[in-house]
Amino acid sequence: MTAVFRLGFLPLVDAALPILARELGFAEDEGLALDLVRDMSWATVQDRLLYGHSDAAHMVAPLAIATTLGLGRPAVPLSVPFVLGLNGNAITLRPDLAAQVTQVGGPGDVSAIGASFARVAMAQKAAGTKLRLGVVHRYSSHNYMLRYWLRGTGTDPNADVEIVTIAPPYAADALTNGEVDGICVGAPWNSVAVERGAGVVIATTSQIWRRGVEKVLAVKQERLEQERERFDPLLRALYRAGEAFVDPDRLEQITSIMARPEYLDGSADAIRRVVQDLVLFADGFDPVHIPDFMFQHREAANFPWVSQAAWLYAQMVEAGHAPPHHADYQRAQAVFRPDIYRSALGPIGATLPGASSKLEGGISTPTGVGSIQGRLILTADSFFDGQSFDPDVFAEMLPE
Fold it and tell me: Which of 242, 258, 211 is nearest to 86 (CA)?
């Protein structure tokens, strides 16, 4: 008997795997009737999941951790058994501001761009008005990647600029209307701002962290534990969708599906560029290929590395969003569930890493790593500043 499974999502290219799982028949093959519910803000996606109006959600990774820790609302433990994708975001400024910090039209050195941005931000602050930057949620990877880059290049994100929240589908509107000076948002909304002439991309998040964890499949922990027979087939369908996403022969098929009104309701050209890792930095220029701009499946990208959850918690602490505490650090890491990933995907021959945690930012050349099943080679996962993140070292800095 086919089981109906309801999953909430936002109109973003990185919602591709649930959409393709349904449209390409992978969910049906697993006995699931996947009912996809499109929302317009992460807050609504979160509420729908927590109050039982959906079974699972396409969600920004830090929000799953914040919900578990009870940041901003009563705590509800969530679990992440599958990562839906890495990166895919960009920082876009209004054109006159971008021209002061970068060579408009293509990628540059994000360290130098950040230093230039810091000088402009300080001048604006001294003049009495801080630059205002929009991110898609307080607890979003966009916010934490932006803050990491700002801190690393001379701007205090808590003191030198103002960071506000804008739902992704409205980010380009806010930039167009002058409500913000810049946005950090996912695809295709940077392209929308650029094509309107309202913005210029100055950096992609893949230039900040080559393997930044982005969207995840979030599930209430209690339901995941009690109804594993419902969720394991979903993970297998999503994995098959990931294989399809990286198949170049399916590019036009994927683009046409994603552009449909019930999904992104957007430009097929913009979506096609994203799938091909092409970024339109400024209107009137040719798109530029950015390696790993959106990383959806290769190199066990869907594996929920516990060390990625650890990095996100460290950024929450750095931002002042979470108090530093050893027990909370353990709870944050436990949100990511590599055990369930292995259990669900082992039977279909998926590559399964042997470890659940790693040194983030520690790989600069293709490196073979231990695996339980399959052969796994990981390529560069560097941060722009050359730093790395060791979850064990961070743990030693936290109070009990």
Answer: 211
Coil/strand/helix, residue 181: coil
Cross-strand bridge partners of residue 294: 87
Contact 174, 147 (CB under 8 A): no
CB atoms closer than 10 angstroms to residue 344: 22
* Per-residue pLDDT at 383: 97
Q: Retrieve residue 366's tokens.
A: 């293709």
Distance of CA 398 to the CA centre of its chain: 26
What is the rounded CA–CA span in Å between residue 18 and residue 345?
16
Q: Which fold has domain 89-211+279-289?
A: D-Maltodextrin-Binding Protein; domain 2 (3.40.190)
DSSP-derived secondary structure for 24-74: TSHHHHTTEEEEEEE-SSHHHHHHHHHTTS-SEEEEEHHHHHHHHHTSSS-
Q: For tokens 């001379």, what's the residue?
A: 154
- The H-assigned helical ranges of 127-188 are 141-152, 168-176
Q: Could you name the CATH architecture of 4-85+213-277+299-346?
A: 3-Layer(aba) Sandwich (3.40)
Residue 195's φ and ψ, nearest 5 degrees, are -65, -25
List where CATH 3.40.190.10 sits in the chain: 4-85+213-277+299-346, 89-211+279-289
Task: Say how far apart CA 173 and CA 170 lie, in whole Å.
Answer: 5
Question: Mean pLDDT for each consecutive 10-residue tract of the chain (400 residues)?
Answer: 87 96 97 96 96 97 98 97 96 98 97 98 97 97 98 98 96 97 95 96 97 96 93 97 96 97 94 96 97 91 97 98 96 98 96 95 92 90 96 92
Cβ(231)–Cβ(224) below 8 Å: yes
For residues 376 and 299, is the Cβ–Cβ distance under 8 A?
Answer: yes
Report the b/e string of 100-130 with b at 16+ CB within 10 A: ebbebbebbebbebbebbbebbbebbeeeeb
Residue 168 CA to residue 372 CA, distance in Å, equals: 38
Residue 348 is given by DSSP the state G
